[in-house]
Amino acid sequence: MKLTILFGGASFEHEISIVSAITLKEKLAGFNLTFIFCDQDHSFYLIDASKMKATTFSRGEYKKMPKLTLSSGTFVQKGLFSKAEHSSTVLNLIHGADGEDGSIAALLDFYSIKYIGPRIDASVFSYDKRYTKWLCNARGVKSLKHEELSLKEHNNIKIPYPIIVKPSRLGSSIGVSIVKEESELDYALDSAFEFDTRVIVEPFLQGVKEYNLAGFGADGKMHFSIVEEPQKNEFLDFEKKYMDFSRSEQVLKADVSKELESKLRTNFEKVYKGMFEGALIRCDFFVVDGEVYLNEINPIPGSMANYLFEDFAQSLELLANSLPHAKRARVNYEYIHSISKAKGK
Amino acid sequence: MKLTILFGGASFEHEISIVSAITLKEKLAGFNLTFIFCDQDHSFYLIDASKMKATTFSRGEYKKMPKLTLSSGTFVQKGLFSKAEHSSTVLNLIHGADGEDGSIAALLDFYSIKYIGPRIDASVFSYDKRYTKWLCNARGVKSLKHEELSLKEHNNIKIPYPIIVKPSRLGSSIGVSIVKEESELDYALDSAFEFDTRVIVEPFLQGVKEYNLAGFGADGKMHFSIVEEPQKNEFLDFEKKYMDFSRSEQVLKADVSKELESKLRTNFEKVYKGMFEGALIRCDFFVVDGEVYLNEINPIPGSMANYLFEDFAQSLELLANSLPHAKRARVNYEYIHSISKAKGK
User: Fold this and answer.
1) Smallest Cβ distance to B120: which of A110, A124, A328?
2) What's the mean pLDDT in A128-145?
3) Fewer Cβ atoms within 10 A, N terminus or C terminus of chain A?
4) Cα distance from A323 to chain B (closest Cα, Å)?
5) Do A240 and A304 sit in the same domain of this protein?
6) Does B124 contact A121 at a Cβ distance shorter than 8 Å?
């Protein structure tokens, strides 16, 4: 199968995206892959597969590679006397800003390029943790209670300690702190506000059971990965998660009852349907007293959560053949014609 | 002031956008205006001001005008031996799809072009009437109860007749019907589902008081238009609204008490703050038993609701000088460098 891996982006998770792309190069060795890099200035570059290593980017060597622009249905590489098109289905692998905030989705939709990844709406509801809560409420999915803080107003937190402080719009644990007592609060808020103007606070549940489940819709039904119980030392810090994005070995299925697995799947589907079509997402859940709570949605999980699927390549191909496509309105100038006619022009 | 009016789009409201742009050409005669047209194939054209009339578009004459592409900070016009840039602040005047669904916002943000109009999140929450209800709930603003219908499930509507049936994602009354009894339901549903796969139903409130209020945030505070009581014959049909978009004469202030005006403003501000910054929007309210209900948000109102402002040109200039700008993450390859170092490479 032909597939274009689009990665990079002007995001705090830029480097993680590079690691994800390198990992997928290995996992999708049977595919005919094209690599397109979006740098922090939003220029696109065609990266030769043999150059897919971290230093190509950190040393700026990518800048010598062919620059691409967007055009209807394709990325275009313009030479002095030539023009090459790169038009295979895109896998949006840009984590964080650009990739997950709806920008890349809008760009690819606007230029009619088929892609695997969340659409604009789905991006907005998963990128900002506040909106994820609104989605949960509307869909009957439980989520932890929370409070929103702004730079101006961040006193009077009512949730008792320990609490967890998070930038509202970042993933990969960037800017996240666990606060056990008030004396630690200011530092945690400073860290969070460094990355976002919007911060949320939730209760920190010591020793809570966590389960991750990935999946996607294709052929009119849901396809789920195995359930994973992520290892944790309090919570994964950024460096740990960074390494985590290069995972490519299939993990072991968590020891969960059929009943719990079914509950996790039901909650996943409530969140996914009518919102995330076209994307392979990972939902991270908490289980408290047998009740399932959605913690967060990763609409472009690190290395596409390949390690949770028994046959990742096959799953991706199935999804690629089931992508939604936006119906575009056609214009017939009916009203202008009828008015011109009425005016006798 | 220099301003680029971006209009057209692949939308059922394409023609309305043309009418809006022609109206603003007249209203903003003191500005240095550039006109950029987005056609239904998503190509951009530079339109000479003297050609800003409906037939330029309905007869396809725009296709002979210079084509533009997007580049960092600007629209670019490429000649054989030349390159001209059109980089003034953009007024996003594309109604409906493209303009109001977040696509144009994402495009302009991605290419770092300053613009007046809703950002991606604000677009998503105003474009789909279901999400507007979620926003209302979260912000403590009342809205009418509703039910969602999908093509597969649209029986068992519990709201008693008369009801109003609307496509979830279109404006300008397209596909909207009032249904007084069950026998009229099928036709109404067919009309709505012709335009959207998502349809909502609300109670139809005969003779309800309606008030429109426009406004925007600038210089750290809200600026409001006068309150208008829109004329109505049941509700405005598309053709009527179409003519409505060419309005340029200031309307009379509705006869509302200071108390009601203040309630409308309070509700407007609850919806606007932390969401619609950068946009001049119009909120349409119902008033039932003295209580204010948000009916819908027009994030790019027809001809920018110019007729509601005492000094429209000045208002727009104030807003143009107060636009939010997205802070872009910078990348320093810290993790890749540290890993390379650890590996001794």
Assistant:
1) A124
2) 96
3) C
4) 16
5) yes
6) yes
Asked if residue A331 is part of any domain, the answer here is: no
> What number is the average pLDDT over the span A112-121?
98
Residue of A76, A335, A338, A340 for testing the chain B interface, max B β-carbons within 10 Å: A335
Tell whether A81 is covered by a domain.
Answer: yes
Is the CB of B106 less than 8 angstroms away from the CB of A106? Answer: yes
Average pLDDT value for residue range A91-113: 97
pLDDT band at A226 (very low <50, low <70, confident <90, very high): very high
- Whether B198 and B235 share a structural domain: no
**How far is it, in rounded angstroms, from Cα A299 to Cα A312?**
16
How close, in Å, is residue A208 to chain B by CA atoms?
27
What is the pLDDT, as a whole number, of residue B68? 97
Report pLDDT digits (tens) over B152-201.
666 688 999 999 999 999 766 788 999 999 999 999 999 999 888 889 99
Q: Strand pairing partners for A283?
A: A213, A297
Tally of domains in chain B: 3
Please tell me which of the candidates A40, A137, A150 has its beta carbon nearest to residue B331: A40
Does residue A297 share a domain with residue A256?
A: yes
Question: CB within 8 A of B20, min separation 6: which ones?
Answer: B7, B93, B95, B245, B246, B302, B303, B304
Q: Which tokens go with A160? A: 């008792």
Q: B210 forms bridges with which residues in the sheet?
A: B286
CATH number at residue A258: 3.30.470.20
| CATH for A171 | 3.30.1490.20
Of A57, A242, A336, the CB nearest to B54: A336
Residues A73 and A112: their CA atoms lie apart, in Å, by 5
Which pLDDT belongs to residue A79?
85
Question: Which residues of B are less than 8 Å from A109 in CB distance?
Answer: 103
Phi, psi of B82 (to 5 degrees): -140, 170
Q: Find the helix or strand (DSSP H, E) in which B288 lies.
A: strand B281-288
pLDDT mean across residues, chain B: 92
Q: What is the pLDDT of residues A19-46, one digit of tens each?
A: 999 999 999 999 999 999 999 999 999 9
Which helix or strand (DSSP H or E) is residue A185 part of? helix A185-195
The last residue of a domain, from among A158, A188, A203: A203
B229 & B295 share domain: yes
Q: What is the pLDDT of residues A228-261, one digit of tens each?
A: 998 765 455 556 666 666 777 777 788 899 999 9
A157: left (phi over 0), alpha (psi -120 to 50) or beta: beta
Asked if residue B325 has pLDDT above 60, the reply is: yes
